[in-house]
């Protein structure tokens, strides 16, 4: 009898635990499998010396770093160059985006001028038209600009960066504008009384106070540029000038399933820095995103 | 919220020397570059561009030299890029949509005529033989020819033959060199054989007079076009067959039977591209399919990702649950993984013959995940769920935590059950803050190029269609394939017409959506 009461007690406490939080863990485990599986699969493929798609189905059976080394020894698919190009184009574009966006957000947040409301509304609407829709026009425009400044023409990375900066104002300005508004105006006033010019206030005071949102916008725009395929694929045709998105896509589509583990190694290397940065700045990103959601 | 207005007039302090210097140097550099561009545009006689750039230059200088216009000083840099690469690009797309721009129609009528003449060159029977020396100047090849009567002339692809008098002659009277040029020797000719045999140096300014070409690099022969252009009638005549090709206003030369010669040239075609999109059965049928699928995809994407994201946010939002942080980090991993790579990885997983899902999970099954029209659509939604739910999970969690506890407690006191509490209290509050994000998400998925293009490439292909279109193509991938595809050639005009249609649809949906949610009224 005693044992049975104990067991019922245990069972009822289990049931209580299960109805309260236990079932949530079941769902959690399902989520982990769904989310992590494709990522583990890529990691396993990248370590597989076998190379083919079908050979990658046995997870973590053999572990070999050969693919990672091979990746840098293929003259027709210069992975190292793609990687550097992506860092360079993404880095400069996102720095430029942050700077241009911060300038605009400062004006919208701190100054009152005619056309301000209209300007903000226009930005909101313009960002509804993604640049990639106008890709034909951008292609022809750069072709024409290249006749005057070859350094900004087709097959020029600087040209691509300049095109990306066309989208600098938009949703970024919005995120920053909201954050700028949370910095008390009294700080500006105090600095002004001390004789600081508007440029001094902007560069030395405001920009420091809004650093978290600058990091978020910079990172989001870096990820956006890294993922951008359409414009980059149209503008950059020389393999040594291309980005990871363009290069790796052609890499798998050309070679179908033959070099799967090589592609997987490239994918892992391309993703790890971005993911590390993302997880490191996670708190700010979540705050930044939800700041847009919750007023 | 009222803010003391910071008027530009308040800033009256004297700028420091350093600030003035930086300003002068930056503005000076910019002006120098733009003036150079103006100079080139002037030489090219591109008057519209010249005027626009000049206006921009004056405006920028005014903004940074005046003491007024303070907001403009901060807005101008971003707006310059926005105007050139977004607003202008959209406007230019609209213009292209009304032309026949594309493969075979990418230049002016004059260029097309020259190109037709050059392409139909044939060696004239019994033409005189010219002694030839190929000269090189900074990578540009020129022909130095000695005519049978001893005249020495120089010419290249760009400029027709012109007599020269200071050429160095060999003992036999053949010109073999010219100051400022390097004569190619036999080895040099061999090394560049292909480029040299493709050269055609026109005899005179009139392309109908023919051109010189060389098969071996030492002798040149006269080549004439078999197609003769008649300046007065504006038509081409094929001298071998006698066929007459007339410009009928379609941007190309064609016979009465519809036979054409390529290339044509760019003309304005009015609404012809839109008429093709909606009128031609072989384009309209697939286009309608694409429009329906685009909407279905965008709506289902938002619905599925939001449903899963919100569900998980609610599930993990229980303070009693242990290890929530861990679950959260894992759940946002797909969001942190670059999206284009995810699509490619899933394409491997779902491969019909070798993929992990068929081979391992389904034990060697033969499910055509990406190659069956219906299953491919399902696969896309599954992969998009994987890609998209973490974002919805993040924003839903944020919004849930922002709901004041008092409201929830009050409802509980009134006897609300969990489901009723969620349905009638939490969800309406969530929707207030999340609705604008759902609209943005719709707009994003409406143009979710990477997922479609990298996962299925728009396939499986619709063979009956006149454009390169597949079962899973959405509008944006269709635009890309029509504009830059390799299968059916490039048709910039039609692609831009599609792009304009998308602009109108997305803008309409967005404006209606934002009206509904009144998001715009929050702007102060």
Topology readout:
The complex is a heterodimer of chains A (295) and B (524).
Chain A (H helix, E strand, L loop, with lengths): L1 H45 L19 H5 L8 H32 L5 H11 L8 H14 L8 H9 L5 H11 L3 H9 L4 H12 L1 H17 L2 H6 L8 H12 L4 H21 L1 H12 L2
Helix pairs in contact in A: 1-13, 3-6, 3-7, 3-10, 3-12, 7-10, 7-14, 8-9, 12-13
Chain B lengths: L16 H28 L2 H19 L4 H27 L12 H11 L1 E3 L5 E9 L2 E7 L5 E4 L6 E2 L4 E2 L5 E3 L4 E2 L2 H6 L1 H5 L3 E2 L8 E3 L5 E7 L1 E4 L4 E4 L5 E4 L5 E2 L5 E2 L10 H8 L1 H35 L8 H8 L1 H4 L2 H11 L6 H6 L11 H29 L3 H9 L4 H29 L2 H7 L19 H10 L7 H26 L7
Antiparallel strand pairs in B: 1-11, 2-3, 2-8, 2-11, 3-4, 4-5, 6-7, 9-10, 10-11, 12-13, 13-14, 14-15, 15-16
Helix pairs in contact in B: 1-2, 3-18, 7-8, 7-18, 8-13, 8-15, 11-16, 13-15, 14-15, 15-18, 17-18
Defining traits:
heterodimer, A: about 300 residues, mainly alpha, MetI-like fold, 14 helices, flat, disordered N terminus, B: alpha+beta, Methane Monooxygenase Hydroxylase, Chain G, domain 1, five-stranded antiparallel beta sheet, 18 helices, 16 strands, about 55% helix, transmembrane helix (chain B), membrane (chain B), transmembrane (chain B)
């Amino acid at each position: 009898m005693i044992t049975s009461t104990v067991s019922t007690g245990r069972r009822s406490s289990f049931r209580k635990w299960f109805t309260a939080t236990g079932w949530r863990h079941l769902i959690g485990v399902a989520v982990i499998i769904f989310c992590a599986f494709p990522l583990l699969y890529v990691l396993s493929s990248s370590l597989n010396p076998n190379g083919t798609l079908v050979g990658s189905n046995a997870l973590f059976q053999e572990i070999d770093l050969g693919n990672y080394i091979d990746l840098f020894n293929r003259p027709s698919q210069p992975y190292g160059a793609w990687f550097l190009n992506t860092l360079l184009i993404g880095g400069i574009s996102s720095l430029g985006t942050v700077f241009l966006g911060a300038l605009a957000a400062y004006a919208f947040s701190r100054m009152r001028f005619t056309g301000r409301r209209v300007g903000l509304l226009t930005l909101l609407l313009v960002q509804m038209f993604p640049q990639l829709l106008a890709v034909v026009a951008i292609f022809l425009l750069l072709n024409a600009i290249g006749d005057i400044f070859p350094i900004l023409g087709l097959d020029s990375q600087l040209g691509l960066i300049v095109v990306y900066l066309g989208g600098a104002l938009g949703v970024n300005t919005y995120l920053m504008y909201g954050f700028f508004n949370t910095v008390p105006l009294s700080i500006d006033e105090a600095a002004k009384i001390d004789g600081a010019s508007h440029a001094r206030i902007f560069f030395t005071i405001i920009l420091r106070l809004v650093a978290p949102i600058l990091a978020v916008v910079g990172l989001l725009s870096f990820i956006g540029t890294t993922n951008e395929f359409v414009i980059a694929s149209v503008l950059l045709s020389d393999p040594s000038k291309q980005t990871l998105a363009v290069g790796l896509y052609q890499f798998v589509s050309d070679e179908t399933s033959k070099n799967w583990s090589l592609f997987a190694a490239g994918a892992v290397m391309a993703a790890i820095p971005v993911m590390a940065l993302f997880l490191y700045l996670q708190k700010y990103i979540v705050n930044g995103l939800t700041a847009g959601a919750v007023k | 919220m009222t803010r003391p207005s910071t008027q530009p007039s308040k800033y009256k302090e004297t700028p420091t020397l350093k600030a003035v210097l930086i300003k002068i140097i930056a503005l000076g550099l910019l002006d120098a570059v733009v003036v150079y561009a103006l100079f080139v545009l002037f030489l090219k006689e591109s008057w519209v561009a010249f005027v626009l750039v000049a206006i921009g230059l004056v405006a920028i200088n005014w903004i940074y030299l005046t003491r007024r216009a303070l907001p403009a000083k901060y807005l101008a840099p971003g707006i310059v890029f926005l105007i050139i690469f977004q607003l202008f690009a959209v406007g230019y797309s609209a213009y292209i949509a009304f032309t026949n721009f594309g493969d075979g129609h990418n230049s002016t009528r004059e260029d097309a005529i020259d190109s037709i003449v050059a392409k139909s060159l044939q060696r004239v029977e019994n033409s005189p033989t010219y002694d030839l020396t190929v000269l090189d100047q900074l990578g540009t090849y020129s022909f130095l020819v000695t005519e049978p009567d001893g005249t020495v002339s120089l010419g290249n692809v760009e400029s027709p033959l012109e007599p020269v008098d200071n050429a160095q002659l060999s003992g036999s009277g053949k010109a073999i060199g010219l100051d400022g040029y390097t004569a190619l020797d036999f080895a040099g000719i061999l090394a560049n054989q292909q480029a040299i045999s493709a050269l055609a140096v026109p005899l005179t300014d009139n392309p109908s007079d023919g051109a010189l070409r060389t098969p071996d690099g030492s002798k040149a022969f006269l080549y004439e076009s078999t197609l003769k252009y008649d300046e007065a009638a504006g038509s081409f005549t094929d001298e071998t067959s006698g066929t007459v090709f007339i410009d009928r206003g379609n941007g190309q030369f064609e016979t009465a039977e519809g036979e054409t010669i390529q290339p044509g040239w760019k003309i304005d075609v009015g609404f012809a591209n839109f008429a093709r999109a909606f009128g031609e059965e072989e384009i309209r049928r697939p286009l309608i399919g694409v429009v329906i699928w685009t909407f279905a995809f965008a709506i289902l994407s938002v619905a599925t990702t939001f449903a899963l994201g919100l569900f998980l946010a609610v599930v993990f939002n229980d303070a009693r649950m242990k290890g929530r942080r861990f679950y959260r980090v894992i759940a946002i991993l797909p969001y942190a993984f670059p999206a284009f790579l995810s699509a490619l990885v899933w394409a491997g997983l779902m491969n019909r013959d070798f993929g992990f899902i068929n081979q391992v999970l389904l034990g060697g099954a033969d499910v055509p995940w990406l190659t069956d029209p219906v299953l491919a659509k399902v696969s896309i939604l599954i992969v998009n769920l994987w890609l998209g739910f973490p974002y919805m999970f993040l924003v839903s969690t944020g919004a849930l935590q922002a709901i004041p506890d008092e409201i929830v407690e009050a409802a509980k006191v009134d006897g609300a059950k969990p489901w009723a509490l969620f349905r009638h209290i939490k969800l309406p509050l969530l929707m207030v803050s999340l609705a604008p994000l759902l609209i943005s998400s719709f707009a994003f998925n409406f143009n979710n190029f990477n997922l479609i293009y990298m996962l299925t490439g728009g396939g499986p292909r619709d063979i009956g269609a006149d454009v390169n279109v597949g079962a899973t193509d959405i509008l944006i991938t269709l635009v890309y394939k029509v504009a830059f595809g390799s299968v059916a050639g490039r048709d910039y005009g039609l692609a831009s017409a599609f792009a304009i249609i998308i602009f109108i649809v997305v803008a309409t949906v967005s404006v209606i959506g934002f009206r509904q949610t009144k998001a715009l009224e929050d702007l102060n």
